[in-house]
Each structure stands twice: as C-alpha cells, then as structure tokens.
Amino acid sequence: MKPEAIHEAVAAIARHHLLRCVRSPDRHPMVQDTLQALEKNADLKGSQSALFDAEQFLEAEPPKIKRLAPEKKNKPRRIQMRAQPKLVSRRPT
C-alpha cells in the first residue's frame, strides 16, 4: 500500500472519530511514528538495490552445511501399575 493511500485511510478514520466526538488516533505518537517510518521506507525503496555490489557476493565462500545426526527412534514407555493405590486426602462432608 502506498503512503498516500495510508494517509487517506488514516484521515478517513480520523474524520469518523471526529464525527463521533472520540479522540483521533492519527494524533497518537505511535501512529505518527509509524506513518513517518512508512514514508521513509517509501523514499528509500528505489535506492535499496544499490546497497551491495554483486562482486562482494561472488568473492565470498558459501557457508559449510553441518550434517545433523539421524534422529533416534523413541521406544514407547511401558506403564507400570502401582503396588498400592495412591493415597488421596478426603474432603470433609
């Protein structure tokens, strides 16, 4: 979504809040910070491809892959019965 469309949506939400006499969310610091971050990201979007040179990736060695040990199969546990019943405290009646 483009920043202009987001600003229009936030303005529409603020308008509805104003009509209902409720505090406008567009004045909240978190909303303002988020909108500024979205604008900043939109401004930098075209220049992101020039952050790294292709030669840097071609010169680097690929990381070595570690082999994991095969998983051990867990045997099902045998359920043991108690020799005596479990003691439970009685509740007063």
List the helices and strands in order. HHH
Beginning-to-end CA distance, first to last residue = 66 Å
How many strand elements?
0
- Specify Rg, calculated over alpha carbons: 31 Å
Beta-strand residue percentage:
under 5%
Integer average pLDDT: 79
Helix proportion of residues, in percent?
40-55%
Task: Please specify the SSE layout and strand pairing.
Blueprint: H1 3-19, H2 29-44, H3 54-59
Question: Top keywords for this entry?
Answer:
93 residues; mainly alpha; 3 helices; 42% helix
How would you summarize what this structure contains?
The mean pLDDT is 79. The protein has helices at residues 3-19, 29-44, 54-59. The protein contains 3 helices and no strands.
Plain-language structure description:
This protein is mostly helical and 93 residues long. Helices cover 42% and strands 0% of the residues. It contains three helices and no strands. It has helices at residues 3-19, 29-44, 54-59. The N and C termini lie far apart (66 Å).
